[in-house]
Amino acid sequence: MQRAKEILSFYLASYWCNMKSFFTYRLQAAIWLIESTVQLVMNLVVVAVIYGISSGIPGWSYYQLLFLTYFASLTFSIVAVVATPWRLPQDLRTGAFDSYMTKPYGLLTIMSAKYSSTTSLITGVFGSLVFLAYAAAHLSLPATFFVLAIPAYLVGMVAYFMFLQVLGVLSYVLIRSGSFINRAIGTMGTLSRYPLPVFGSSVQLLLTLLVPLGLAIYYPVEVLFGNVTPLSYVSFMALGAALSVAFYLLFNRLMRSYESGGG
Amino acid sequence: MVNLSGNFALFKATIKSQMAYKTDYAISLVFGIIRPLILLAVWGTIYIGTGLSTIGGLTLASTAAYFFLAIPVTMSTNEDVVEIMQGDIQQGAIASSLVKPMSYPLGVICRSLGGVSLNVVLLALPLMLLSIAVFHLALTPSMVLLFVVELIIGSAFLHIVNFIIATLSIQLTNVYGMMITMWDITTLLSGATIPLNFFPAAVQHVLLLLPFSMVCYMPVMTLLGMVSEAQVLSGIAITLAGTALLAVAAYFWWRHVAKMMGSAGG
Predict the structure, then answer these.
(1) Binary contact (B46, A50; C-beta < 8 A)
(2) Do the chains contact at A34 and B177, CB–CB below 8 Å?
(3) Backbone φ, ψ for residue A215 (5° rounding)
(4) Percent of chain A beyond pLDDT 90?
(5) Mean per-residue pLDDT, A244-252
């Protein structure tokens, strides 16, 4: 209990420090918030253009696709709030992570404390929630579906978060570059804004079994829309839990092989 | 007097230093193929689901070719002006650059062009040739000539716009957020995200009157043979006029802000 309090206190102090340093440069902060808002609005433009010029993606209404788009945006923002994934390969490469490792906390605690993104919290999370509420208001989703979707979402999110951390370390270990994870996240961002069946069954399988993007975004949305059978629901939960554990173990294994960077 | 040999040396030096990141180029090439495949899957589903042979005047094949060409075209018109100048200001390298007997803004543009040239050779050209072969594009010499002119003008426009943004780093130190915002806006207005044909007619007309269309939409449509020469020439005239106006503004702005420069870095 004492240990948990210590970790929480370290996390909150670091988070508060990040927040303060972000707002020290007020103009910079405002620009970043504008940038994040522009991205949110661009998502709306893309969906509006698709449904303005065509009947859209078969089986998906305008508001459903809008909901999926902002659900994806929310998920990516939450991941960035917990720990911006491209910061790890960057700090491993420059050696900045070495000094963090001397702190008496676990790697994930340190990363969450150091790599939280304030912009993602303010505009990414809250902005996405505003658009999600707007889309949800037109979809009349039953409360029971929300109750079912939240655990599926949390499990999927953990699996996806751990996958990104593994990808971050692999980016450094294999190619000593942060460019790969940046581009991979960009690609996953585009993929996640559309229903997975659009990409064919093999990609859907890949984005479910290996890259848990589907578990974090697409399937929880399908649960909300009432399109998932109880058996599939349990399978997604079990798969999400298994992948979370597997990626957690792999992440720790990879980090143990890390010696030192920079120089 | 412009120091041509000095600026050419900067251009070559940038190419050499960028060559150190070979893996990054390979990664960019792979993702440069993945992105249009994703968009093709999405729009393919929309075309098939809607049951229409054309959307916004584009068939599915033309839309696919558009997405595959938009990536190399955007890579060719892109620039690094903001990152270069902001880096110089943050590290204090601008102080030593300013005492050299050469124009600093021109030097920044030459360094940026070094990076762009490498992008064109290592990324854009292979992707473009691949797209031309896959989609059996019948190119005429006049189309290729217009395309090259459009790329140069589109790139010049982006260089000037971003030079103005980069000069703001003299006072703000960090303009990375502004650069990304500009990039987001450019990708949307230039047709890099969605072909301009897909926008409502009124919006489309406005977007075609902006120089941004020369950054992606017009060069791609020229290669696809889907715009008339008159449209291309009017687009070139609009972008040239806009670029010239911005260049004059950038010249006077630079003379003004250069006086405010302090020393930073260490």
Answers:
(1) yes
(2) yes
(3) -65, -30
(4) 51
(5) 95
Which residues in chain B are closer than 8 Å to A183, comparing Cβ atoms?
Answer: 27-28, 31
In the predicted structure, residue B266 carries a pLDDT above the cut 50: no
What does the DSSP 8-state code read for residue B56? T
Kindly list the residues from chain A whose CB atom is less than 8 angstroms away from the CB atom of residue B38.
187, 190-191, 194, 199
Report the pLDDT value the prediction gives residue A67, as an integer from 0 to 100: 97
Average pLDDT, chain B: 90
Q: Looking at the complex, does the CB of residue B185 fall below 8 Å from at least one CB of chain A?
A: yes
| pLDDT for B262 | 67
- Domain map of chain B by residue range? 4-260
A53/B193 touch (CB, cutoff 8 Å), yes or no = no
B106 reaches A (C-beta below 8 A): no
What are the φ/ψ torsions at residue A103 (nearest 5 degrees)?
A: -75, 150
* pLDDT score of A202 more than 50: yes
Please give the angle made by the CA atoms of A28, B154 and B246, to the nearest 5 degrees: 60
Contact between B265 and B182 (Cβ < 8 Å): no
**How wide is the angle at C-alpha A212 spanned by C-alphas A250 and B193, nearest 5°?**
125
CB of B22 within 8 Å of any CB in chain A?
no
Distances (CA, A) of A218 to A43, A68, A95, B50, B70: 16, 7, 37, 23, 28
Can you give the residue ranges of every domain in chain A?
A: 2-256
| Separation of alpha carbons B166 and B170, rounded Å | 8
DSSP-derived secondary structure letter, B191: T
What ipTM was predicted for this assembly? 0.89
